[in-house]
Amino acid sequence: MIDPDALLARQFAPIEHSYDTRDVILYALGLGLGTDPLNPAHLRATYERAEGFGALPAMVNVLAYPGFWAMEPDTGITWQKLLHGEQSLTLHAPLPAKGTLIGQTRITGLVDKGEGKGALIYSERTLTDKATGTLIATVAGTTFARADGGFGGASGPTKPVHTLPDRAPDCHFDHQTPEGAALIYRLSGDYNPLHADPAIATQAGFTRPILHGLCSLGVASWSITQALADGRSEALTHLQLRFTSPVYPGETIRTEMWQDGADVSFRARVLERDVVVLNNGLARLG
Ligand SMILES: CCCCCCC[C@@H](O)CC(=O)SCCNC(=O)CCNC(=O)[C@H](O)C(C)(C)COP(=O)(O)OP(=O)(O)OC[C@H]1O[C@@H](n2cnc3c(N)ncnc32)[C@H](O)[C@@H]1OP(=O)(O)O
């Protein structure tokens, strides 16, 4: 059972994370970039000598990340039943292609949806460049703890979600994820067994391991900059979304977009099952 006071007060030691070109490429490979090695857009993210090579902004999700801390028994969290519910990232400065970042994580809120309905755990992480002290990014997430409702906490406030425009999407971009995407993506630092272990996936109620939500987010981020920023992935300065349904590795993610100036509303569906997997998306291009 969650102890709300203890969880809200949980201390996370600052994490120092040094990364380089190899990590940047591994992250991109985890999104399924590099499966089309003659495509310059894939090379831009996976080959350090390609023109325009750099870290994809959504990589902030895996940098100076505290790991799957929910598995630690003192959290009271039923980690097998966790799903990623929402995520946002804001780039305050460009993400360097290599460097050392300091990550500081904190729990920012808890919502009790009630017994049998689950709980929401809100967290936030700041990423600061160790060498310059520059704040690079703020990353925030909502974890949907499906088995942990009913701990006696408040049922709100919840974060407002972005409403998509009431018109057909202006454009879309398709990207097929590789069957082994989750096994590669996890090497960037998200080792939740749900994405690799068939037995754990079954316990969680799935037929097989599902893709990391943050991998799908990375695909959508890249797709938006492919469709609307001439492939300049570094144009992305903000992104927020809700994860509405799981993605299985190997599925094709279609990102549907509406552009209003620098703001891009978006959602994504899996073509093979015609299910919306990411919704209420808002991205900003600089
Ligand atoms: C703590 C350590 C950090 C760990 C982070 C996670 C680590 C990762 O490795 C884990 C992952 O990557 S999991 C993969 C990515 N995520 C997913 O696949 C989840 C997809 N979403 C779902 O399955 C459902 O939306 C589901 C199940 C989330 C909700 O579906 P339903 O229960 O059917 O919800 P619904 O009846 O539609 O709504 C009930 C109330 O919940 C709110 N809500 C719905 N979806 C939400 C979401 N995605 N995030 C936050 N809130 C959400 C609704 O608004 C509704 O609220 P209210 O009761 O106030 O009306």
UniProtKB/TrEMBL annotation:
Entry-linked CDD domains: HDE_HSD
**Residue span(s) of domain MaoC-like:** 165-277
UniProt-listed SUPFAM superfamilies: Thioesterase/thiol ester dehydrase-isomerase
Domain Peroxisomal multifunctional enzyme type 2-like N-terminal, first and last residues per copy: 18-146
| Gene Ontology BP, a term | fatty acid beta-oxidation
Q: Name one GO molecular function term.
A: (3S)-3-hydroxyacyl-CoA dehydrogenase (NAD+) activity
Pfam families with a match to the protein in the record: MaoC_dehydratas, MFE-2_hydrat-2_N
Protein name in the entry: 3-alpha,7-alpha, 12-alpha-trihydroxy-5-beta-cholest-24-enoyl-CoA hydratase
Species this chain originates from: Thalassobius vesicularis
Classification of source organism? Bacteria, Pseudomonadati, Pseudomonadota, Alphaproteobacteria, Rhodobacterales
